[in-house]
Amino acid sequence: MRTKLSEIKWHLMLTAIALILIIPIIFAISNSFKTLSDAYSNILNIIPSNPTLNNYLQVFSQLPFWRITLNTFLISAAVTVFKTVTSFLAAYAFVYFVFKGKNIIYFILISTIFIPFTVTMIPNYLTISSLGLSDSLLGVILPQLSDAIGIFLLRQSMRSIPRSLVEAVYLENVSHIRIMKDIILPLARPAVISTGIIFFINSWNEYVWPVLILKSQDHYTLSLALQTYVSQESGTEFTVVMAVSVMAMLPPLILYFIFQKYIIDTFTLSGLKG
Amino acid sequence: MYDIKFQNVMKAYGKNVVINNLNLDIKESERLVLLGPSGCGKTTTLRMIAGLEEITEGKLYMGGRVVNNVSSGERNVAMVFQNYALFPHMTVEDNISYGLKVHKLDPAEIRKRTDHAIDMLDLKGLENRKPKELSGGQRQRVALARAVVKRSPYFLLDEPLSNLDAQLRLHARKELVKIHEMYHQTLVYVTHDQVEAMTVGNRIALMYQGVLQMIDTPSNVYNRPANVFTAKFIGSPPTNIAEAIVNEGKLIISGQNVSLPEGWLKKVKENNCDKLYFGIRPEYTRITTNYTENAFTGIVKYIEDYGNKFGVYFEVNGTEFISVCDENVPVKGETVYFAPDYSKIYLFNHESTKSIGYPEG
Fold first, then answer.
1. In CATH, what number does A53-273 get?
2. Which of A163, A169, A172 to mutate to test the interface with B (most CBs of B within 10 A)?
3. pLDDT tens-digit profile of A69-105?
4. Superfamily for the B4-228 domain
5. Which residue of B has its CA nearest to A168?
């Protein structure tokens, strides 16, 4: 009975938190289908009184929207693939290779997580522009090919794989690439997938770095496109901003729904085994 | 050809020495059991043979070749791990054939070997199951099958039966010996269970704190222990060990004395030591309540009931002995007489704790 009561308490609390988190999303979706005047007079109504698709159509007419979505996708995909692959390889080395100073190198690497972006922003910008890569997608991608958080998450997950499994393969005279492919990747798959998703979503939503590098509208990403509407002086077109927001958050949201099981697994596991 | 030889091998983790100057010859095709309490270095020894632990000092020969720097994969050993190390994402069949597939063996040969192992180890019908859908005994058999299909000349087993219940263990033990008799690999088996060691091994190497205590046949390890540790470790209840002095042909324990036969006196003289440890197994300790000449006198302190037998704890002037009896069991507080069977006793040097030897005949 006591467990039941505390369970109910937990459920109530979590439901409340979930509601608080989801309200802005519902707000955005409902307002993206309202006319501007309807939005201003009945901003909290969830159901629009005159549902309209005009906001969405306006976005398509004013911006190279498909192009911008493609840019965002290309950057996010490249960043995700590179970060995941490099994190996986580094984590494998940190778990299964024996070399001098392994732990020190690892801790230095992990401590880079705590270096704020603003510190690396200017050196990175100078490097990219001296390479002649400003205003290019490659310039956005290049400084983001590896990530200490990914190494941390994947290392945790690999450490939870019993060592004897890998030793059993060592006895078969198998290459490291084959060990990764046959044993580690299948067993660490949930962690790899969720790490990838985290990278993808972060990159998808990234604003400050792309805004520094990308100048022309043809190279814009979705967050930059959103910003152009917000900062327009001729009265923000609030409902159009909501429409762009909804379209911008759809792909990561869909990804999350497909893979949510793995994401939760990874975080609970890395928490327990830490 | 497929023998294994440790020559002055030392293994240390930092400053912590876990194997100290190990010299051990394992003959081709024999079943050698590494036995000892946990933490004695037996698993480390096995892992050094597998190439999973580096050797700090000394040389390890396999098949006449120094293998210190040869990787595990090139040593051609098959190993069964304590936790079986089955790949959880593969089916039973894939687990068994994985090594063969990696080496790109002819598919017909892979099929043949896998089927044979599945048949032999009674795994039919389980081929497509994942390890988590198997019982402990089945997992253990899959691990065995995976090692068997490799047809390696070296077969290493790290406490392979420790996760099984007593009945299954008995069965698996027999199965293992059967497999060895079929393929005659050089088999090294690690266990802390002395019964397993006795039944599986042609020879037993007993280890303690990183030092090899004794290596011999099960019968000699049991009946002619080389030192106090061996005598105490092997057998249950453990061997009675008591400090003793030999003086003028008498064996003196806690102030009481009995005459020692000529053969033993000669041994004591040869070793030139009169301070000794006296040892005798509880099952060879015959005690009686009738007065006996040339016997130690003790008082019964405690009785344990084993079901078919009784353990009688008695004290000879403060030195505790245990005797196993099946009839004429004395009662607590009663006086008992204990005349040792001199063909079954052990005498150890007090200083080195090593056996002073055994009289002939």
1. 1.10.3720.10
2. A172
3. 999 999 999 999 999 999 999 999 999 998 999 999 9
4. P-loop containing nucleotide triphosphate hydrolases (3.40.50.300)
5. B85
